[in-house]
Amino acid sequence: MKTVTEEGVFAEKTLKFKLNQRDKLYSETGHYWGVKELTLKEQDPIRYERFFSRLQSSVFAAREKARFVAASPGGREMGESLWALTTAEGDTLAISLGFISHAAAFPVSIKHMTDNDFEENPGINDGDVFGADDPMTSGAPHPGDTYTLVPIVIEGEVLAWACSVNHIMEAGAPQAGSWPVFTVDTFMDGFVFPPMKTGENLRQAKWWENLWMRRTRAGAMNVLDDKMRLAGCSMIHHSLHEIIKEYGVEYYRQACKEIIEESRRMILDNMRSTMVPGQYEGSCFRISMLKGQQKIWPHADKDELIHVHGVLSVDKKGSLVWDTEGSSRWGYHGFNGYPGGADVALHLQMTTTFAHNVKATGGVNMNVESIYHKGSIYNPDTEFASCANIWAQSMQMECVAGNAIHLSFFMRGYLEEAFAVDDAWEGIQGSGVLDDGTPYGFTNFEWVGGTAMGAYSFKDGMPTAWCSHTQLCNIGNSEEFEYLIPPTHHLGRKLEPGYCGHGKHRGGIGQTAVHWMKETGQRLGVTRGGVATSLTSYVSLGMNGGYPAPGVVTVTAKDTNLDEVFAAGGDTPTTAGELLEYAKEGKITGNVKGWKYDPPEQSMGEDDLWANAAGGSGGWGDPLERDIDAVVEDIRIGQVPEGFAKVMYGVVATKDENDLVILNEPETKAERERLYARRRSESIPAKQWWAEERKKIIEKNMRNELLVMYRKSVCFDGYNKHFKEFWQLDEDFEI
């Protein structure tokens, strides 16, 4: 006999029953919903594939139309948006281009609503509108990633959700922009809201629009982005009603299960065919420089070095396990996150790598086990940790996992697929008040939507051709940002010479921009929100002797003489490197500073400059093995400076008065021999290096920030054991 709820709905149709049954059957059988046979696919494969194509086309059409409704540049041009159709439980069935890894977040929101009995209060009805951006309860990486979810309900049963997400331009935190850096706890993260009903009948409530206008600095743009997300969800909602009417509810239910199970199997096959069994370990680091910035909260007034550590392993089934034990404990800064958001970062690699030729569904999630230890930066043991800028270190985590995968590709002989994985993006952000009193907030996404591709084992990487979080690499139009951020104008927007990971094959050259401040109004404050700083390299790994990608460069110039330069018809800097060079030569005067860490908000005035360089990528192989003609070509096209070519590659060449490159072959041969000799004279045996470093650890002879970092990592038992075994320390040793 079937059990009936108070609302008259059979219990097996409730979300709570479905979630429990899905998990129970998967645990018992190892198959999604216990589906062992793809019955519909086998009985009528054409009908089955046509059904899926209808689902897929609905989300693709939603993206291609909705992003032109009224979107900000990130959502419209640069892939910073996504539309998807999920099952009732939140498992992705079909997904558009764009932010595809956010499929890992949808189940978190829906589970939260289910666990908190949303079906009873406030109710989940067809065409209702729900929103979310809270990292702990919705799976959002940070509040700048904002979600809209629309249930599709037939005869009282939730059958699916139309979902969307985009990266908004301003999150409403004390520090303006979408990646606040100087935060202490979640109360400084901005406009944070757990999954909540914000509208009905595919229409948002008026109070929802009022909240955006009152709680963020870019209210009008954020409202338009909200309309964009809902417009696409409305299209998916309409399409699915038509599809279910044509195919029937029972076919829909069974086909959804088979689609995800089919995808799970095929993705697992891809993993088995490309991965070499074993463990792949990696570390990288992100600094948090808040000392002197937090005058009100002394517990946050400190500098920290955050350890990002991960081990990727292949289990006996051939699926992947990602364990982050040893990553730092959470802290009073904005670089924390919760498991849902960490999965969104991790799945940047997993989805694009293993679902490239199959249905990209929730089947990806079932083949990757992620372990985020309680108390760490990826799973704080408090609900109040700030995670305004998790991307500042989770992208490094994702690249550690990505390099492990690409090393495995290389070992299996997939040379054309294997490259050095880096994604060192950057963005400037801030707020201001125009002369007429109009306030505004902004984020410039230009170096988020496209970075350089890492080097391969047989060729150089390409500039602005890679973006791990979207298949639509696009840095956007300069004019888009200039009209949305009135005081900023580009003096230059190009590639930064020499800015890459070097090697036998170098990574793609990174990008640079010089922003000129003009008509700054009553006030203009600028900060940055990027994944790296120039104090450390991006990911501590080059491939086979190649250099890692450089960190992000920020240069500010205040109280400049630009008005005199313009009047005299002089040259202005077009790259971050040129700005530093011009200041050194006296061409640009004023307070010019290169920042090796996240600069606090800078009050910018007339003719001030803000320059950055980002998006470099790692090299592959020994730089001294690089083909000499390739170095000469880099000099010719201005991608590697002559002096640097000599230092890094041992190539001695000059440009004549006609800009022709003249190679000095004898001196090049001698220079390479000198560099090899210098390596031999300066190198020491690994055993000696290990002994010297071990002594530093035993004596605790290192900067306090390093000691604190180690202490925050070894508080996790597994990493503590690993640490002591590597350095052969006594059991009772405490760092």
Fold and architecture overview:
The structure is a single chain. The chain has 735 residues and is of the alpha+beta class. The protein folds into 5 domains: 42-250, no CATH class; 277-418, no CATH class; 423-626, no CATH class; 627-682, no CATH class; 689-727, no CATH class. 36% of the residues lie in helices and 18% in strands. Strand 4 and strand 5 (157-167) form a beta hairpin.
Secondary structure tally, helices: 21
Helix share, percent: 25-40%
Write down the domain tally.
5
Task: Return residue spans where pLDDT drops below 50 for at least 5 consecutive residues.
Answer: none
Classify the oligomer.
Answer: single chain
Q: Could you give the count of β-strands? A: 22
- Give the rounded overall mean pLDDT: 93
Distance between the termini: 63 Å
Q: Which structural class best describes the helix and strand composition?
A: alpha+beta
- Largest beta-sheet details: 7 strands, antiparallel
* Radius of gyration (Å): 27 Å
- The amount of beta strand, in percent, is 15-25%
3D shape: globular
Strand order of the largest sheet: 2-1-5-4-3-6-7
Helix and strand layout, with pairings?
Blueprint: H1 15-29, H2 39-43, H3 45-70, H4 73-76, E1 81-87, E2 92-95, H5 106-115, H6 119-123, E3 129-132, H7 135-138, E4 145-154, E5 157-167, E6 196-200, E7 203-204, H8 206-215, H9 219-247, H10 249-274, E8 279-289, E9 303-314, E10 320-323, H11 339-354, E11 368-371, H12 391-412, E12 428-433, E13 439-444, H13 478-484, E14 488-495, E15 511-517, E16 523-528, E17 553-558, H14 562-567, H15 576-585, E18 591-595, E19 602-603, E20 609-614, H16 628-636, H17 642-649, E21 653-655, E22 661-663, H18 665-682, H19 686-699, H20 704-714, H21 717-727
Parallel strand pairs: 10-11
Antiparallel strand pairs: 1-2, 1-5, 3-4, 3-6, 4-5, 6-7, 8-9, 9-10, 12-13, 12-16, 14-15, 15-20, 16-19, 17-18, 17-20, 21-22
